[in-house]
Structure to design on (929 residues):
């Protein structure tokens, strides 16, 4: 997922491969077991209701689950728009925050036909926030709506049978034969072209939420589409404010593991001004700051409001892409030179200390992560210069692309430009507005040689990293996520192989080791990218909030579980 | 009538001159000589001109400062924020890092510029470092070069174009005057900064590649061209008015009667008669163009980073204003001193060249 600003991405070819799933409840109805586990997980924060929660939030792209691809929206959607399944609403520090649980469906599905058919049954009596009943056919119409919106999420569904016509002409999409629903029985059958290991995770993201079939296939912002979770969005003024209230049709405890929510109402002010955002909470005007604390004031806030601040590691990697199709980074020696030329600790410092240096592509929170040792590219400018000389690319002109309106992204790009100059390139910089940065660098005609990028997971499985970002089979002409055009046939094949393993092996030690090996190969042998840090996020609360109710899963706080002292 | 508070500077008549010269024989003096004389007596204007020259000289010496004092280039980064001076480690940026203990990050905040070192770092980081560890003093001087270049060159281009258009419009009159006047009106209709942002943003994205001219988006010539364009009516309109008035004077009729052509009349007869106004307008417009450059660069439509200019430096310091106000303060002071000195000198020049104050620059 994209942090900010939103990348317009069509993952048309991305999540294609895969194997039958995976995860804990694979192949069976596991609803009951899940209920027991998850009831306990939210118990600590449950039943502490209070009238109004005032929050300050970063601006976002859309407030429509079919369109938004930003953390800011997804963090709100987790308690508003539910899919058939959901990720557990528990802290990663105390529970398994990557676990998939049933949401609108009674179970995490029955998987048959070698992992290619998924069957779900809807819970009975569910209603949207406008009083309409939730029907099985709403799932199909919601996925079709995603296509008709030309949503950035449509690539997640490219493995569903009968989706080809919709992929070819998304806005004219009218049917997907691989989704068969029965409103009377409340059943939803999804047929895949081939097994897909991460498919349950795909069903848990906001693009897969169920919306009434009457929802128009256009951006609906004020008010956004009816909700099916414990809250609904009562009003939304883009980039200014929102109000969230309790869904009057939500029945307490109807979905085990889903918090019923403590605040009766959430009033949000939206701003990207980090200093203003923090000040609103420090002054007690707001109760929670969703934005990052301003790095230059971090010391001040930490010393003065230390007990009201939490720091969290995130499944994110900040890295520089290098275009394999263009000089000088066609040369592996040049790519290695860049890796030696960047001082990762200095880049962490540039982010105010909010990061951990990394030489891996996969973040450490994954079970598939294995730290590459010895450190493959210790900071060594002399060695970098030598490699540039050996590559025969010294003196070549290199344009660094970066985002100009986000402080750290801009600084990181300018730092890279400086380092490239030091190792012998004629480096220039091109700073673009964040709003269209990824569209531009993801277009092959831009011919971006090197530049800033980062990645926050959509869901916690390595295919969300390697398949989308470094599988050469998924390179596209436009909306390309593989900005460096990384393409190693042997590694592409290995990614595909891992995606097609039997479900029981998806998280086996051998599979995990194989993913770790891909990480190592790409970094050590090919220097495919130059990763430098895993990001840390901050959560800042007012003095009236009870910090023990701050439940941060692997990438976001759950506002529904916030409570007062 | 402008004064310095001590004496007047409108010594226009022979009687006044004679009285001043103590009854000595009165020699004929050209208007330029008289103007120079008036200017010499305006010590405040001259003092501020001296300050402006000092700023210019300092900025021109930026490479010397960079190579012999700070030993750092204007874009040379040091995000680690540590230097070694006489074997002693000096931090110019606070050090931050995170350690993970049992999955919980322990963050030591850092990355914040510590502030001016003055002399403590042997000439390095005299005015401190920015967040990337670049030497602020070095960037201030190089930024001044860029700001002054854009300001002065754009004012010069703008003045030349305006003079030509004013002469053509005023001399030919009729349809030609109507077309040029409407062109002035068209540019005038847009607020300077708005038009500057629109043009600057459009041109910095892909540069200018037309009519055989290739200018990259990073080039200083982009803001220079944009600023020179948006100020054309601010000089062109008052000059056109003067030319229209002069066009009716007898000396133009005489020149015409002698068979002088249009070009000769425009550049040999009319131009010398508006030269003093041109000089005054140029001086005053330079202050405006420097301010506009700072504004456009602050908004990202002028000098492109990482190249420094006073405007970009203020913009870069903006996000750190609470902790490190000096990052924006130093370039802000530099702009204020430069613009103030040019305005005071410009006023003095106007008083000297145009004592009846016919020429005024309308502020954008």
């Amino acid at each position: 997922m994209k942090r900010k600003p939103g990348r317009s991405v069509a993952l048309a070819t991305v999540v294609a491969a895969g194997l039958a799933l995976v995860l804990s409840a694979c192949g069976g109805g596991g609803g009951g077991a899940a209920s027991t586990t998850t009831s306990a997980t939210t118990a600590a924060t449950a039943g502490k209701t209070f009238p109004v929660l005032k929050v300050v939030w970063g601006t976002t792209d859309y407030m429509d689950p079919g369109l938004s691809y930003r953390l800011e929206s997804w963090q709100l959607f987790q308690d508003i728009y539910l899919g058939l399944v959901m990720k557990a609403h528990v802290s990663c520090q105390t529970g398994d925050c990557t676990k998939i649980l049933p949401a609108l469906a009674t179970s995490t599905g029955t998987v048959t036909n070698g992992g290619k058919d998924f069957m779900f049954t809807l819970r009975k009596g569910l209603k949207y926030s406008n009083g309409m009943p939730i029907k099985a056919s709403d799932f199909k119409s919601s996925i079709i709506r995603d296509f008709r919106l030309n949503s950035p999420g449509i690539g997640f569904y490219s493995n569903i049978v009968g989706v080809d016509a919709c992929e070819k002409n998304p806005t004219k999409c009218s049917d997907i034969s691989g989704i068969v629903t029965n409103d009377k029985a409340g059943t939803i059958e999804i047929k895949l072209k081939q097994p897909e290991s991460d498919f349950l995770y795909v069903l848990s993201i906001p693009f897969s939420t169920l919306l009434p079939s009457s929802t128009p296939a256009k951006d609906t912002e004020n008010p956004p589409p009816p909700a099916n979770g414990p809250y609904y969005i009562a009003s939304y003024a883009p980039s200014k404010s929102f109000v969230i209230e309790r869904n009057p049709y939500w029945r307490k405890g109807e979905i085990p593991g889903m918090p019923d929510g403590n605040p009766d109402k959430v009033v949000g002010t939206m701003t990207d001004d980090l200093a203003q955002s923090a000040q609103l909470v420090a002054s007690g005007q707001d109760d929670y700051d969703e934005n990052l604390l301003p790095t230059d004031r971090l010391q001040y806030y930490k010393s003065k409001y230390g007990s009201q601040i939490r720091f969290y590691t995130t499944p994110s990697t900040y890295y520089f892409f290098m275009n394999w199709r263009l000089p000088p980074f066609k040369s592996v020696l040049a790519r290695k030179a860049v890796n030696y030329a960047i001082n990762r600790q200095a880049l962490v410092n540039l982010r105010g200390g909010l990061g951990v240096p990394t030489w891996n592509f996969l973040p450490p929170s994954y079970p598939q992560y294995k730290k590459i040792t010895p450190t493959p590219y210790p900071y060594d400018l002399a060695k970098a210069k030598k490699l540039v000389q050996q590559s025969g690319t010294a003196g070549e002109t290199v344009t660094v692309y970066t985002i100009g309106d986000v402080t750290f992204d801009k600084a990181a790009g300018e730092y890279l430009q400086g380092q490239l100059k030091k190792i012998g390139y004629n480096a220039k910089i091109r700073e673009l507005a964040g709003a269209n940065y990824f569209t531009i660098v993801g277009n092959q005609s831009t011919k971006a040689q090197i530049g800033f990028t980062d990645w926050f997971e959509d869901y916690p499985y390595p295919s969300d990293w390697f398949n989308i970002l470094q599988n050469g089979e998924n390179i596209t002409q436009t909306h390309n996520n593989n900005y460096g055009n990384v393409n190693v046939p042997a590694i592409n094949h290995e990614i595909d192989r891992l995606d097609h393993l039997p479900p029981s092996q998806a998280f086996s030690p051998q599979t995990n080791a194989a993913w770790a090996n891909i990480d190592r190969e790409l970094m050590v042998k090919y220097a495919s990218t130059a990763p430098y840090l895993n990001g840390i996020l901050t959560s800042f609360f007012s003095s009236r909030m009870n910090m023990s109710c701050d439940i941060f899963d692997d990438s976001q706080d759950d506002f529904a579980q916030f409570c007062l002292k | 009538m402008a004064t310095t508070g001590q004496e007047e500077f409108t010594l226009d008549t022979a009687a006044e001159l004679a009285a001043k010269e103590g009854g000595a024989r009165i020699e004929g003096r050209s208007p330029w000589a008289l103007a120079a004389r008036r200017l010499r007596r305006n010590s405040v204007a001259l003092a501020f001109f001296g300050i402006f020259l000092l700023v210019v000289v300092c900025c021109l010496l930026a490479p010397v400062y960079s190579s012999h004092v700070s030993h750092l280039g204007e874009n040379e980064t040091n995000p680690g924020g540590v230097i070694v001076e006489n074997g002693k480690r000096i931090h110019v940026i606070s050090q931050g890092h995170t350690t993970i203990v049992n999955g919980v990050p322990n963050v030591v905040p850092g990355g914040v510029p510590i502030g001016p070192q003055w002399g403590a770092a042997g000439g390095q980081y005299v005015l401190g470092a920015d967040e990337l560890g670049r030497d602020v003093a070095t960037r201030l001087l190089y930024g001044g070069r860029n700001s002054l270049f854009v300001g002065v060159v754009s004012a010069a281009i703008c003045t030349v174009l305006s003079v030509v258009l004013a002469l053509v419009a005023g001399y030919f009159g009729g349809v030609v005057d109507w077309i040029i006047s409407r062109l002035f009106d068209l540019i005038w209709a847009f607020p300077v900064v708005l038009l500057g942002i629109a043009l600057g943003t459009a041109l910095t994205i892909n540069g200018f590649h037309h009519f055989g001219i290739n200018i990259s988006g990073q080039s200083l010539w982009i803001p220079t061209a944009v600023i020179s364009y948006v100020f054309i009516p601010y000089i062109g309109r008052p000059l056109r008015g003067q030319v229209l008035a002069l066009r009716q004077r007898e000396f133009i009729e005489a020149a015409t009667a002698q068979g002088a052509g249009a070009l000769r009349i425009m550049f040999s007869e009319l131009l010398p008669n508006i030269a003093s106004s041109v000089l005054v307008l140029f001086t005053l417009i330079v202050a405006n163009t420097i301010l506009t450059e700072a504004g456009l660069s602050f908004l990202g439509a002028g000098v492109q980073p990482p190249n420094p200019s006073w405007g970009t430096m203020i913009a870069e310091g903006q996000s750190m204003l609470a902790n490190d106000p000096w990052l924006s303060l130093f370039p802000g002071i530099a702009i204020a001193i430069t613009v103030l000195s040019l305005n005071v000198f410009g006023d003095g020049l106007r008083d000297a060249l145009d004592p009846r104050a016919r020429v005024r620059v309308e502020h954008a």
